Amino acid sequence: MGTATSRVVLVTGGYGALGAAIAKRAERTGLTVVRTGRHAQDDGLTHDVRDPKSWTAVVDEVLRRHGRIDALVNAAGQLGGVPQDVLSATPEQWHDLLDTHVVGAWLGCAEIIRRRPDRLVSLVNVSSTAGQLATPGMVAYGAMKAAVEHLTTSVALYCARAGLPIRCNAVAPALVDGGLRDDVLATIGSDSDQALAAYLARVPLGRLVTPDEIADTTYQLIASGGTSLTGQVITVSGGLGLA
Question: Engineering a disulfide at 195: which of 1, 131, 132, 188 sits with its beta carbon 3.0 to 4.6 angstroms away?
Answer without folding.
Answer: 188
